[in-house]
Amino acid sequence: MKPNRAILAGLLLASPALGQSTTNPFTTPIKADGAIQVNYREFARVPDLAGAAARMMLMVDEPGANNFFVNDMRGPLYRISQDGRSVTEYVNIDDPAWGHDVQSQGRERGFQSFAFHPQFNQRGAPGYGKFYTWSDVTDTVPPPDFVPSGAGNTHDMVLLEWTARTPGAARYDGAAPRQLIRLQHPFANHNGGQLSFNPNARSGDSDFGKLYIGNADGGSGGDPMNMAQNMASVFGKILRIDPLGSNSKNGKYGIPSDNPFVSGASAGALGEIWALGVRNPQRFGWDSRNGNLYVADIGQNIVEEMSPVRKGGNLGWNVWEGSFRYGGRAGVDTSNPRGDPAMIFPIAEFDHTDPVLTGRAAVTGLVVYRGTAIRQLSNLVLFGDNPSGEVFAVSADNPPAGGQDPIRRILLNDEGQPKTLLELVRKATMAQGKQLATRVDLRFGAGRNGEVFLLNKHDGVVRLLMR
């Protein structure tokens, strides 16, 4: 796909020289004391693969059944019983029989995400037996549906549709998956993000059965191909499609008529786009009370952000990094924060220099907790930092206007002592005889009954938060 040169030129002309540049825009640290404390228990253990701990990315419940699913970046998708005692492989999408070998080298590539159609267990419905996977693959021979704005072809990403004949069977019993979308990826990092159907949507709603797709800016650093603001590119966007439709350019999926750019109001804009201006939208989630959608978008060198996502909204990257003008490794420009009313700015953000972190930083998330079982977490947006495993929260009823001052830490009660998740993972890896964990690679899981799970890539343990 050719980039929209007019939009690119306008953006480049609109970007001023940096004024007040800093690598530490938030001088007041996240409060180390006064943390919210919660209990936890080990809910399940996901098997090692080739002697290494599962690289868990996502955990969701099974529509129409009392089970959960969790994936390993290297290919397996596991079904977990409601009580967590049974963990069985449902399908390995890296099996050569399926013809889409997973590229899982490095930290960022692999089986990124999955989503079950809300009608997965509803016999006779169009979505019966269907689920979707979003992964990096080694095979780059088939022609892609979308290409980057410049040179580069490290691997492809594919969105696949699987159809089980018997959804409740112990193992996947369907045929090879159907490819919906293939992307040519220019760099090895900043790959796909989350797949999800809106859990608040009900049959008959316009959002029911629409698949949201997080897609990063293509990688390297600073979005060198300027794709996040390019409306003719799928990179740096949150997409929304109808996986059961057929009016896309390749005829393999549908573009919903209520998507914001379907009307062609922006020349050359892709109809698949729901929101733009994201860098690496690893995780997003909805508020069950008001329908608000939030994304945890990993920053470049300075600012990690957790932001609202609105229909047709622009989250600013790569003109803005969080609330500030982007300035590369030199720092962000603090002279006019949140200075463009056309942009959507974060409700919470933190910088890489904060002392509660472990050096590198990458925001992750997220769960809007509207349950009552864990009273101290009620009405909070839960998110965190990927490497350190720090778990954070801000108000869901009165979302703040950015910055890290409103952020509260959440610590886990371990035999009467408040601990970080990193401390728990280090304790577990030591007991397992594994290499002592130096980072967590935190991800969240959620259940329909308000369960909140903490995942990581080092000890295979799924932890359930409790009162």
Essential attributes:
467 residues; mainly beta; 9-stranded mixed β-sheet; 4-stranded antiparallel β-sheet; disordered N terminus
Tell how many strands the DSSP assignment holds.
29
What is the 3D form? globular
Which oligomerization state do the chains in this entry correspond to?
A: single chain
Cα separation of the termini? 51 Å
Fraction of helical residues: under 10%
The average pLDDT value, as a whole number, equals 94
How does the helix and strand content classify structurally? Answer: mainly beta
Characterize the main sheet.
9 strands, mixed
The rounded Rg comes to: 21 Å
Tell me the strand percentage band: 25-35%
Total number of helices: 2
User: Any low-confidence stretches, pLDDT <50, length ≥5?
Assistant: 1-18
Question: Mind explaining what this structure looks like?
Answer:
The chain has helices at residues 5-14, 421-432, and strands spanning 21-22, 36-45, 56-61, 67-72, 76-81, 87-92, 111-116, 130-137, 155-163, 178-185, 192-197, 211-215, 237-241, 273-276, 281-286, 293-297, 303-309, 320-321, 324-325, 332-333, 348-351, 363-369, 380-385, 391-395, 408-414, 417-419, 443-446, 452-455, 461-466. Strand 23 (380-385) and strand 24 (391-395) form a beta hairpin. It is globular. It is mostly beta strands and 467 residues long. The strands form seven sheets. Strands 2, 22, 23, 24, 25, 26, 27, 28 and 29 form a nine-stranded mixed sheet that branches.
